[in-house]
Amino acid sequence: MYTSGKYSSRGPALIPRMKTKHRIYYITLFSVVLLGLIATGMFQFWPHSIESTADWTLDKRSVHDAPLIRLPVSSPIPERGDLSCRMHTCFDVYRCGYNPKNRIKVYIYPLQRFVDELGVPISSTGLSREYNDLLSAISDSDFYTDDITRACLFIPSIDVLNQNSLRIRETAQALAMLPRWDKGMNHLLFNMLPGGPPDYNTALDVPRDRALLAGGGFSTWTYRQGYDVSIPVYSPLSADVEQPEKQPGPRRYFILSSQTAIHREYRAELERLKEENGEALLLLDKCSNLSQGAASARKRCYKGQVYDYPQILQAHWFWEAYFSSMKAIGLTTLQIINDRIYPYAARTYEQWNNPPVVKWSSVNSPLFLPLIPPRAPGFTAVVLTYDRVESLFRVITEISKVPSLAKLLVVWNNQNKSPPEESLWPKIGVPLKVVRTKENKLSNRFFPYDEIETEAVLAIDDDIIMLTSDELQFGYEVWREFPDRLVGYPGRLHLWDHEMGKWKYESEWTNEVSMVLTGAAFYHKYFNYLYTYKMPGDIKNWVDAHMNCEDIAMNFLVANITGKAPIKVTPRKKFKCPECTAIDGLSLDQTHMVERSECINKFASVFGTMPLKVVEHRADPVLYKDDFPEKLKSFPNIGSL
User: Fold this and answer.
1) Model confidence over 497-511: pLDDT tens digits?
2) What's the rounded Cα separation, in Å, for the pair 403 and 392?
3) CA-closest candidate to residue 458, choices 372, 531, 400
4) Over the chain, what is the mean pLDDT?
């Protein structure tokens, strides 16, 4: 690493950016003032809050011209670092506040040259090109602010990427002198090389109080889960590499290791994995038969066979997005921290791992919608049916009375019987579409049909004839407030059976709810895509094989994605639903309730956790129980138990 002489068009990237209105002002100023006033104009170019840089001129913004700060021997030294730090203990999220874009604001301290009392710098390399590139990328991003009072996260301009170039004590003293240090609260340090061979430290040795560390080389002992960020070690040799696009077809290697100079214990573990898995793992190392130099640095070998590096890595999109440059590494780090601070607006698994070209019919995740979706589009009612035509027609008639109904989609799940003729269907004021399925599967109700054009979906069984239009309209209004939740009517609960040592499904009246059944529930159509294409393990096939528990599976899926409980609406408890008293329904099977408990245990095993959340509340309309004229209530016919 070395000191850079490369700057952006604004000068060095770590200098606070100029606002547009100021830029226009000074362009105009330069065109009308005399040459003798230009110096004054350049003086005013810089924010006045940064007194140390107020007298810099445009052609002298160099690290060599940064203010010189002498560190007294008695300067305070931060504590070693609190290994117990987590976001809720060592990070002040209230500094971030609420903003419509759900994006943290990052302030970069202005350049300063720190030296000890004898004038010796705290670093042998000064500002490296890599750290300058990192700060440049951040200052050009939407995360950046030049207003220190608006900042949520602070990044020192002190380069600690390579610990080998640092004087540990003096660097720590320099950090403690930063004006907003406050024991490292809300400060972020980037370090890639905490030490050198052969031992390699696993974390930066510079005492840093509570500062977050984006580091390369963490161990389980030094990484603070959910607080620090583990980053790759950037290689300048990769800057000029042109990566070929991944060729179609399955990848040849499941795991590929191309890192050189790995600790001997790690290397031994990889060798053991190679022996167990054979060709599934490709273990590369330096090429001993090639002369050293830049050319050999871009080669890797295995048993005499030479591979081009990094072309052999295959995962081209991941490389470009997260590893290829200091910009990619820096902005990815900030996005990870941003997701922790604004979890409700965090990137999904798909957004992190799928290339941008992978799109699901332009469907939006409800986690990224406006706070309240507009009322105008309404909802699509999806009715799953087999052959209960009379009951189906009654359900269609009742649903058609709901003001916000936009379309009604009937999923005809009977392959042995055709649906009624068009002339026999109820006449309603919205489009009615019948979709015939190829197989009788419960999962057909959650397929992302092209006919579903609204974001809101009402899943409803063909025997739910008791819900009033007020109840359904109110449920839709609640969903608009919480578009990432399951919002429904039949509430159920999961319990832990201590005697049996497993989960149990409970449908009795209780004070708690952890599921709402999709025999009558609103949800975002995004979850149809997740259910159909991203359901973990064999859950979807298991549901179809057992003809049970598709509703429980959907509850698991939504709770696992959002970390939130469903919302039960209105007081009604009695439903003609799959596990109630339907004459020709699934509940005649005596094993039905037992299977429901088996479902919960099966799904918890596949998910690897119990994502369902228990709540003790429901949503009811304001005034619905008040002694108030019915005609003045928004939802007068809310039903009874």
Assistant:
1) 888 899 999 887 788
2) 20
3) 400
4) 81
